[in-house]
Amino acid sequence: MTAGAYHYIRHPLYCSLLLGGVGVFLKAPSILGCLLFAIVCVFVLVTAKVEEEENIKRFRDEYLAYMKTTKMFLPFLI
Question: pTM, whole model, 2 decimals?
C-alpha cells in the first residue's frame, strides 16, 4: 500500500503516537515526562523494526524497494 500517508512514510500510526507524545510532554515538561517519552520512543522504534523485518520476509524485494523511497517516521527527515 503506497497511497495517502504511506506514500511519504512507512509508519504513519507510529508517527502520530510519537508526535502526540511530544505534545503531551511539551504541555507539562518534567523529568518523569521526559523519561516516559523516551521509553515510548524506544518501544515504538523496536516495534517498527520488528514489523519491517516481518514485511521484508513476506514481501521481499517489493518492500525493500518501498523502504528506499520512503522514510520511517517523518517525511524527508527520518
Answer: 0.82
